[in-house]
Description:
Distance between the termini: 28 Å
Helix content: 40-55%
CATH class of the largest domain: Mainly Alpha
Oligomer: single chain
Number of helices: 7
Strand content: 5-15%
Largest sheet: 3 strands, antiparallel
Structural class: mainly alpha
Amino acid sequence: MSGVITPKTIFDRDVLYQHLKNHPNQAISNPELCELLGLSKGKGGRYKRDIVSRHITALQKDHPNIMSKKDGYVFLDTIPADERILTELISMKAELTEMKTMVAGVVEKLVSPLVTGSVVTEAVTSDKPSNKRRPPKSSAPVDRSPLIAALAEAQKQGRPYTKTGRPGSNGIHARGGELPAPFCSIGRDRLERIIAELLQAGKIVQDKAGFLSVPCY
């Protein structure tokens, strides 16, 4: 029925919007957008442009910076350059603060035994190497299942994440506040590295538009 907004309609429009937004100030052709939605070619090799056109028209009501061009559309980046730089600097500052906290924790662990004298005493009284096995260091949480569950839930709600993205986008770090602990407090580089590991392991997949999903969910 025309005029009825289904979950698939919302999902398709979000796919188109994110693709245009991720390629600012670039003309994206109708055929490319049709292929992005998996639309087959019609008679005479013509793409079903009317479907894309209806989606874009609906998006333009909320996003007037989506401009119609000859045989395609352009997402005009209206964010001022200084504002974009400021946003990136704020993000970098947050990551540096996290790194500073991590380094301070490591230094405290190294200094504490020296202050109590336990390490010094052991070094003086024993020349034998210690046979105790140290637990392996890990730069990321061992249990990734809460993160995978969050990706599946976002997929189910029609609001999937992308691996990367600026603040305000669907990037996994940009929407990090929605993730369960401890992933909601992990830095961008570290979180994107975890996503890359899950992709490599086949726990999650990424489509042509960059959206993440959980197979067989």
